[in-house]
Amino acid sequence: MLIRIARPGDVQSREITDEGLYLRRREFLRQGALGVGATAAMLCLPGCGRAAGDPALRDEPTPFEDATSYNNFYELGTDKGDPKRNAAALRTKPWSVEVQGEVAKPGSYPLDDLLRDLPREDRVYRLRCVEAWSMVIPWRGVPLSKLLARLGPSPSAKFVEFRTLFNPEHLPGQRSNVLEWPYREGLRMDEAMHPLTLLATGMYGRDLPNQDGAPLRLVVPWKYGFKSIKSIVSIRLTQVQPPTTWNMQAPDEYGFYSNVNPNKDHPRWSQATERRIGEFFKRKTLMFNGYDQVASLYSGMDLQKNF
Fold it and tell me: Chain-wide mean pLDDT for the chain?
């Protein structure tokens, strides 16, 4: 008999509201339709459960149109609307991922082969960007830990490095020197193996749109959004901390860890509050974006210094 044990962070597909309901929610609320449909739309997010006797907090998913038209994806342009406007420039088929470094099964894997037979999961996560705006998105993907276990990490592997597609012929943003290309990111091995860390292949019950990082992106919900690298073509396991794009670009502003931390301001703005896309009023930023179950990963660390 197979017994599945629910983990913090798991949200089943049946618990995710139909996309059409997201898009109609404001109309429902204006009409006072706060019955069964609106109640179902208020999903309890991982990290938002009861703590110290507090009642469960609930978040409303961001409308699909907002989540796919207000993006940071510099490969497709630096304006928030550029990624959607230039989305057709990103060609996602065929797609392969190069696996390298301290791993038993290196090689170049077609995406379907890389993820074959791995469990797909539906999860609703907050995404908090360093510019102090946030969204709530229903993702679909594979726990990164499941993929890494299949690839056989060496005991000497301490970090995982990711790289985005580099193709300036098709990606207009890469024709500028706004960043050092290709975009790269990294996690400590224990962060990569945490059950909340997701390799996303879809959102809102459909394949990832190009502007949101198709066909494969990382989602690390307790970190600022730039850590959730898009359009991944390379995964390398290393013994040393890898260089990461924004940390190389401005090390005083963007640390390697980049955990959501209301007590650590960006040099040019406060991180104490955030504006949820679609809302007028700001709300308080939560430590680790509300995902308290990751706090033990940083026990004893100075999160002002190691930001």
Answer: 86
Cβ density class 89-127: b for 16+ within 10 Å, e for less: bbeeeebebebebbbeebeebebeebbeeeeebbbbbbb
Alpha-carbon span 43 to 61, nearest angstrom: 8
Single-letter amino acid, residue 273: T
| pLDDT band at residue 59 using 50, 70 and 90 as cut-offs | confident
Question: Does residue 99 lie in a domain region?
Answer: yes
**5 in any annotated domain:** no
At 220 the pLDDT is 98
Q: Is the residue at 15 inside a domain?
A: no
Question: pLDDT tens across 254-291, in order?
Answer: 999 999 999 999 999 999 999 999 999 999 999 999 99
- How big is the chain by its Cα radius of gyration, in Å? 19
What is the secondary structure of 241-294 as a DSSP string? PPP-HHHHH-TTT--SS-B--TTS-BTTB--SEEEETT-SS-EEPPGGGG-GGG
Specify if 54 maps to a domain. yes
Q: How far apart are CA 277 and CA 110, in angstroms?
A: 35
DSSP category for residue 47: T
Q: Quick check: 54 pLDDT over 50? A: no
Residue 198 lies in domain: 43-298
List the one residue out of 66, 92, 91 whose CA is nearest residue 81. Answer: 66
Based on the structure, what is the number of domains in the chain? Answer: 1
In contact, 256 and 186? CB cutoff 8 Å: yes
Closest CA to 75 of 201, 194, 213: 213
Number of other residues whose CB lies within 10 A of the CB of residue 272: 14
Output the domain CATH number for residue 169: 3.90.420.10
